[in-house]
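ok trying again, last paste got cut off:
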Amino acid sequence: MQVTTDSIRVLRQRTSAGIMDCKRALEEANGDLEKAEEALRAKGMVKAAAKSDRATTEGVIEAYIHAGNRIGAIVEVNCETDFVARTSEFRDMVHDLAMQVAAMAPEFVDEGEMPKGDIRRPEEVCLLQQPFIKDPSRSVSDLVLNVRTQVGENVRVRRIARFSLGE
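nice, full thing came through this time. structure:
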Protein backbone atom coordinates (compact mmCIF):
# COMPACT_ATOMS: atom_id res chain seq x y z
CA MET A 1 0.00 0.00 0.00
CA GLN A 2 1.23 3.51 -0.85
CA VAL A 3 2.19 5.75 2.09
CA THR A 4 0.77 9.23 1.55
CA THR A 5 1.68 12.54 3.15
CA ASP A 6 -1.84 12.71 4.56
CA SER A 7 -1.43 9.38 6.36
CA ILE A 8 1.96 10.52 7.72
CA ARG A 9 0.37 13.76 8.94
CA VAL A 10 -2.49 11.91 10.66
CA LEU A 11 -0.11 9.46 12.35
CA ARG A 12 2.12 12.31 13.45
CA GLN A 13 -0.85 14.13 15.01
CA ARG A 14 -1.88 10.99 16.87
CA THR A 15 1.57 10.09 18.19
CA SER A 16 3.76 13.24 18.05
CA ALA A 17 6.47 11.06 16.51
CA GLY A 18 8.91 12.41 13.93
CA ILE A 19 8.04 12.50 10.23
CA MET A 20 10.55 9.83 9.23
CA ASP A 21 9.54 7.59 12.14
CA CYS A 22 5.90 7.87 11.02
CA LYS A 23 6.84 7.10 7.41
CA ARG A 24 8.87 4.03 8.40
CA ALA A 25 6.12 2.76 10.71
CA LEU A 26 3.51 3.15 7.96
CA GLU A 27 5.75 1.37 5.45
CA GLU A 28 6.29 -1.52 7.88
CA ALA A 29 2.54 -1.69 8.60
CA ASN A 30 1.66 -1.57 4.88
CA GLY A 31 -0.19 1.73 5.32
CA ASP A 32 -2.36 0.55 8.26
CA LEU A 33 -2.63 3.54 10.60
CA GLU A 34 -3.67 1.49 13.62
CA LYS A 35 -0.76 -0.95 13.36
CA ALA A 36 1.70 1.88 12.70
CA GLU A 37 0.43 3.80 15.73
CA GLU A 38 0.71 0.70 17.90
CA ALA A 39 4.29 0.09 16.70
CA LEU A 40 5.29 3.70 17.39
CA ARG A 41 3.76 3.61 20.86
CA ALA A 42 5.56 0.35 21.67
CA LYS A 43 8.82 1.86 20.44
CA GLY A 44 8.20 4.99 22.51
CA MET A 45 7.44 2.99 25.64
CA VAL A 46 10.73 1.12 25.31
CA LYS A 47 12.55 4.45 25.01
CA ALA A 48 10.60 5.86 27.97
CA ALA A 49 11.48 2.87 30.16
CA ALA A 50 15.16 3.38 29.37
CA LYS A 51 14.88 7.00 30.59
CA SER A 52 13.11 6.22 33.86
CA ASP A 53 16.34 6.33 35.90
CA ARG A 54 17.25 9.86 34.82
CA ALA A 55 17.09 12.65 37.42
CA THR A 56 14.06 14.92 37.30
CA THR A 57 15.04 18.27 38.80
CA GLU A 58 12.83 20.63 36.77
CA GLY A 59 9.06 20.74 36.38
CA VAL A 60 6.01 22.66 37.50
CA ILE A 61 3.56 22.94 40.37
CA GLU A 62 -0.05 23.31 39.27
CA ALA A 63 -2.99 24.37 41.42
CA TYR A 64 -6.57 23.66 40.45
CA ILE A 65 -9.58 25.16 42.22
CA HIS A 66 -12.90 23.54 41.34
CA ALA A 67 -15.95 25.69 40.54
CA GLY A 68 -17.50 26.96 43.73
CA ASN A 69 -14.11 27.29 45.46
CA ARG A 70 -14.82 24.38 47.82
CA ILE A 71 -12.26 21.87 46.47
CA GLY A 72 -8.69 22.49 45.40
CA ALA A 73 -5.66 20.42 44.45
CA ILE A 74 -1.94 20.97 44.01
CA VAL A 75 0.40 18.65 42.12
CA GLU A 76 4.14 18.72 41.55
CA VAL A 77 5.34 17.01 38.39
CA ASN A 78 9.03 16.85 37.56
CA CYS A 79 10.92 16.44 34.29
CA GLU A 80 14.56 16.66 33.22
CA THR A 81 14.71 20.14 31.66
CA ASP A 82 12.91 23.45 31.99
CA PHE A 83 12.39 23.41 28.23
CA VAL A 84 10.05 20.41 28.54
CA ALA A 85 8.36 21.95 31.59
CA ARG A 86 7.25 24.84 29.35
CA THR A 87 5.76 22.69 26.57
CA SER A 88 2.01 22.61 26.10
CA GLU A 89 1.92 18.78 26.28
CA PHE A 90 3.58 18.80 29.69
CA ARG A 91 1.54 21.72 31.08
CA ASP A 92 -1.75 20.25 29.82
CA MET A 93 -0.94 16.92 31.47
CA VAL A 94 -0.08 18.61 34.79
CA HIS A 95 -3.36 20.56 34.70
CA ASP A 96 -5.27 17.34 33.98
CA LEU A 97 -3.52 15.66 36.91
CA ALA A 98 -4.54 18.49 39.25
CA MET A 99 -8.16 18.11 38.08
CA GLN A 100 -7.88 14.33 38.62
CA VAL A 101 -6.69 14.87 42.20
CA ALA A 102 -9.54 17.30 42.90
CA ALA A 103 -12.16 14.98 41.40
CA MET A 104 -11.02 11.56 42.57
CA ALA A 105 -9.29 12.37 45.91
CA PRO A 106 -6.34 9.98 45.71
CA GLU A 107 -4.29 9.75 48.89
CA PHE A 108 -1.05 8.47 47.35
CA VAL A 109 0.85 9.05 44.12
CA ASP A 110 1.67 5.38 43.58
CA GLU A 111 1.09 1.97 45.10
CA GLY A 112 4.58 2.04 46.65
CA GLU A 113 3.50 4.81 49.03
CA MET A 114 0.64 2.77 50.50
CA PRO A 115 1.26 1.42 54.01
CA LYS A 116 1.83 -2.31 54.26
CA GLY A 117 -1.34 -4.15 55.13
CA ASP A 118 -3.61 -1.47 53.67
CA ILE A 119 -6.57 -3.41 52.25
CA ARG A 120 -7.90 -0.64 50.00
CA ARG A 121 -7.62 -1.11 46.24
CA PRO A 122 -4.81 0.92 44.59
CA GLU A 123 -7.23 2.00 41.81
CA GLU A 124 -9.18 3.89 44.46
CA VAL A 125 -6.44 5.60 46.48
CA CYS A 126 -3.38 5.83 44.18
CA LEU A 127 -3.31 8.55 41.53
CA LEU A 128 -1.28 6.65 38.93
CA GLN A 129 -3.49 3.55 39.14
CA GLN A 130 -6.80 5.43 38.79
CA PRO A 131 -8.74 5.54 35.52
CA PHE A 132 -8.18 8.92 33.85
CA ILE A 133 -11.30 11.09 34.30
CA LYS A 134 -11.24 12.40 30.72
CA ASP A 135 -10.77 8.91 29.21
CA PRO A 136 -11.64 6.04 31.61
CA SER A 137 -10.25 3.47 29.17
CA ARG A 138 -6.74 4.72 30.11
CA SER A 139 -5.08 4.97 33.49
CA VAL A 140 -3.34 8.10 34.76
CA SER A 141 -0.09 6.16 34.48
CA ASP A 142 -0.80 5.70 30.75
CA LEU A 143 -1.30 9.47 30.42
CA VAL A 144 2.06 10.17 32.07
CA LEU A 145 3.78 7.53 29.93
CA ASN A 146 2.27 9.02 26.78
CA VAL A 147 3.63 12.47 27.63
CA ARG A 148 6.98 10.93 28.55
CA THR A 149 7.23 9.42 25.07
CA GLN A 150 6.07 12.65 23.40
CA VAL A 151 8.62 14.91 25.12
CA GLY A 152 11.45 12.37 25.17
CA GLU A 153 12.30 12.86 28.84
CA ASN A 154 11.65 11.21 32.15
CA VAL A 155 8.49 12.60 33.75
CA ARG A 156 7.59 11.88 37.37
CA VAL A 157 4.64 12.84 39.55
CA ARG A 158 6.32 13.81 42.80
CA ARG A 159 3.63 15.07 45.21
CA ILE A 160 -0.09 15.67 45.42
CA ALA A 161 -2.35 17.45 47.88
CA ARG A 162 -6.12 17.89 47.93
CA PHE A 163 -8.06 20.40 49.98
CA SER A 164 -11.78 20.31 50.64
CA LEU A 165 -13.64 22.91 52.63
CA GLY A 166 -14.55 21.48 56.04
CA GLU A 167 -12.34 18.38 55.86
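cool. The chain is about 45% helix and 20% strand. The mean pLDDT is 87.
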